[in-house]
Write a structure and sequence with these properties.
The longest helix is centred in the last third of the chain and has 26 residues, at 380-405. This protein has helices at residues 31-45, 72-90, 104-109, 112-116, 132-142, 152-158, 164-168, 191-194, 203-215, 243-251, 271-279, 296-301, 308-321, 340-353, 370-373, 380-405; strands at 21-27, 49-51, 60-65, 98-103, 122-124, 145-147, 173-177, 179-180, 199-200, 220-224, 232-234, 240-242, 258-262, 286-288, 326-333, 357-362, 409-417, 423-427, 433-437, 446-454, 458-463. It has 16 helices and 21 strands. The strands form six sheets. A six-stranded parallel beta sheet has the order 2-1-3-4-5-6, sandwiched between helices. By secondary structure, it is of the alpha/beta class. Strand 15 (326-333), helix 14 (340-353) and strand 16 form a beta-alpha-beta unit. Bound molecules: 5'-deoxyadenosine (5AD) and iron/sulfur cluster (SF4).
């Protein structure tokens, strides 16, 4: 990031167009937090804050936090300790520092954060970002502010669209939140408590935001939601619609090359969505559909509302209409009550599904969730052992999937420069990073290439034919 020249007059007084203030945002957690951080940045730019990657150069520091697994809050406090020292050095100078905690830890801990770390000036939950500029200004003039009220529809209505310049600065792919919150109450998860009840953004709002992204040069949009396939709305003619139908409407926008969506729940994987995978070329052949565990007993106690067989039959149906689809997922090992036999069932569902890529986690007790109250918590050493075995299987599957791409002709959307000057990096339809020679195109182009080599996490390719 370029540091702006200081426009302060020699007298030390700011000139009329004083240097803009700088905001540094650190983001943890899921893509929705990444999206939220960009929207916070956009909202603050209207108030004269330009982004910086340099903590030392920031007037405003925001930590956009995640609460999904243990120690998340502890990480926030240890970061705050370091930032407090910077703030103390700046006290009394003409550039005091303001510190804010946003996101799911802010929602879950509220004023406790300010009680524990007095350097914090504002605590803002995920549903109030549209009020952020106002809250920051108030914190600067009147002292600490806490805002963790739920009003998620409000947020989307009042967040300004990103300007073309802001969108361009972030590249040719973009996230777009269409759904937020969760009513599923899986017994391990804090999201229903931190992000609130499921809400869907209105159809017109989504189409408007998607069009403005595409007008600014975005070629790939990933729709986001904690339960993205629970999205529902009303089309302009007044009919009920679900995510599959929304995808058909988005596919009509001129200039959209690629659509994706994350994260889905098996219960909401309806026929319309599966048909969209059959019909829409721009809907990428990639499905992130977490199952979490393979034993029906554990799935029941997780309150997942489906069995292992039901999950596998959804995957079969999707593969029937889109045989080349890459399946991705999330797995938890060591949920309370998980026996060796239950864990073997997790290994078995992984074998049956054959993932292109899958995240795996040790169960982590979250205060306030039913899982934390359950007896039969699994010992840490057992979780470690199971996770290692599961990860080995998943890596094997991922490597096999990547190896199966070698020799294939694929389209790659070029996203950024590579490590070497003569390389560009893009994504395959299946979301793998692909390194291509830079003479094949420029960022934003979709180029046709042949995959020449597979690594565990990426592919190499050359010009096709
Ligand atoms: N412990 C471990 N993993 C969890 N996840 C959610 N809550 C927990 C928890 N308490 C995982 C799930 C979810 C992903 C985003 O994080 O696999 O799909
Ligand atoms: Fe973390 Fe979930 Fe919050 Fe995303 S929604 S930041 S994953 S707790």
């Amino acid at each position: 990031m370029q540091i702006e020249k200081d426009k302060t007059e020699q007298s030390g007084h700011p000139v009329a167009d004083a240097p803009s203030k700088k905001v540094f945002i650190k983001t943890w957690g899921c893509q929705m937090n990444v999206y939220d951080s960009t929207r916070m940045q956009d909202a603050l730019e209207g108030d004269g804050y330009t982004p910086t990657q340099d903590l030392d150069d920031a007037d405003l520091v925001l930590l956009n936090t995640c609460h999904i697994r243990e120690k998340a809050a502890e990480k926030v406090y240890s970061n705050l300790g370091r930032i407090r020292k910077l703030k103390q050095q700046r006290a009394g100078t003409d550039r005091p520092m303001t510190i804010g905690v946003t996101g799911c830890v802010a929602q879950a801990e509220g004023e406790e954060i300010i009680r524990r770390e007095r350097a914090v000036d504002l605590v803002v939950g995920p549903q109030t970002y549209h009020r952020l500029p106002e809250i920051v200004a108030k914190a600067i003039t009147s002292g600490p502010q806490i805002d963790t009220e739920y009003a998620v529809e409000d947020k989307f209505e009042h967040m300004p669209l990103a300007s073309a310049k802001q969108v361009k600065s972030r590249g040719v792919t973009a996230f777009l939140t269409v759904q937020e919150g969760c009513d599923k109450f899986c017994t391990f998860c804090v999201v229903p408590y931190t992000r609130g009840a499921e809400i869907s953004r209105p159809h017109a709002q989504i189409i408007t935001e998607a069009k403005s992204l595409v007008d600014a040069g975005v070629r790939e949009i990933t729709l986001l939601g904690q339960n993205v396939n629970a999205w529902h709305g009303i089309d302009p003619k007044g009919s009920e619609m679900r995510l599959g139908e929304l995808l058909y409407d988005l596919a009509e926008i001129d200039g959209i090359n690629r659509l994706r969506y994350v994260t889905s729940h098996p219960k909401d994987m309806d026929d319309g969505l599966i048909e969209a995978h059959r019909d829409l070329d721009c809907l990428m052949p990639y499905l992130h559909l977490p199952v979490q565990a393979g034993s029906d007993k554990i799935l029941k106690s997780m309150n997942r509302s489906h069995t292992a067989d039901e999950y596998v039959s959804i995957i079969d149906r999707v593969r029937e209409v889109r045989p080349d689809i890459a399946i991705s997922g999330d797995m938890i090992v060591g949920f309370p009550g998980e026996t060796d036999e239950d864990f073997e069932a997790t290994m078995e569902i992984v074998r049956r599904t054959n993932y292109a890529q899958c995240y795996s986690f040790k169960y982590s007790m979250r205060p306030g969730t039913p899982g934390a109250e359950m007896e039969d918590q699994v010992e840490e050493s057992v979780k470690d052992e199971r996770l290692a075995r599961l990860k080995a299987l998943l890596t094997e599957q991922q490597q096999a999937f990547n190896a199966s791409c070698v020799g294939k002709t694929i389209d790659v959307l070029l996203e950024k420069r590579g490590r070497e000057a003569n390389q560009l990096i893009g994504r395959s339809p299946w979301l793998q990073g692909v390194v291509v020679p830079s003479h094949l195109g420029t960022i934003g182009d979709t180029v046709r290439v042949v995959v020449t080599k597979a690594n565990t996490n990426s592919l190499m390719a050359q010009a096709a034919g």
